[in-house]
Design goal:
The protein is α+β, with helices and mostly antiparallel strands. 59% of the residues lie in helices and 15% in strands.
């Protein structure tokens, strides 16, 4: 879960996740939305993969990135546990 929070802490990585919410994209297509080098985008994508927030799949000459919705579901369950406890933690 630490990788997940680290990955989500960066606004560039959050924007990449927003882009992938719409459709699967290649690294080049993702890079078109940012004013940074492709190696920088690659580092962001690798961190997102380490956190298992995205998957990559080779299709012909290209690697497509897509969201791993299972991790988001697990994260939401974890967050909702705090809401469902109802206490402030100061009891």
């Amino acid at each position: 879960m630490n990788y997940t929070f680290k990955a989500l802490s960066d606004p560039t990585r959050r924007k990449i996740l927003d882009l992938l919410k719409e459709e699967d994209l290649t690294a080049g297509e993702i890079a078109e939305h940012f004013n940074m080098t492709k190696p920088s985008i690659s580092r962001h994508l690798n961190l997102l993969k380490q956190a298992e927030l995205i998957w990559d799949e080779r299709k012909g000459q290209f690697i497509y990135y897509s969201l791993n919705t299972t991790v988001f579901q697990d994260l939401m369950k974890w967050v909702l546990q705090f809401q469902n406890q109802g206490g402030t933690g100061n009891e």
